[in-house]
Amino acid sequence: MSNTPDNHRNAPRAATNYLARIEYRRGQLTARVIDMSMTGARLATHEQIAIGERVVLTTVRMGMRSGVVVRFNDGELGIRFTDEIAEAHEARMAAAG
After folding, report:
1. Top-level class of domain 10-96
2. Which of 42, 60, 82, 94 is packed most tightly, with the most Cβ within 10 A?
3. Which among 8, 7, 32, 4 is positioned nearest to 18, based on CA atoms?
4. For the segment 54-84, what is each residue's pLDDT rounded down to a tens digit?
5. What global pTM score does this model have?
6. pLDDT tens-digit series, residues 8-31
């Protein structure tokens, strides 16, 4: 994923390559974090989680982050964070312009 203007990203994404735990309605699983920003993450997993489902993503680097699944395509899961960190970042961006 790029951060080109037509990509509609709220925050720059950093490429990563580490594991995370995803807790969701059916239990938990381990996924590889492909990239992450203040407002979301893209993960590689073969487990499909329904769009709109609430999840908790836990990583060593960022701790626990609550979110909602916004896409699943070709083994990649997109999560939009819904926690205080994401809300604060979105508020700062809206105030800036």
Report:
1. mainly beta
2. 42
3. 32
4. 999 998 888 899 999 999 999 999 999 998 8
5. 0.79
6. 555 667 778 899 999 999 999 999
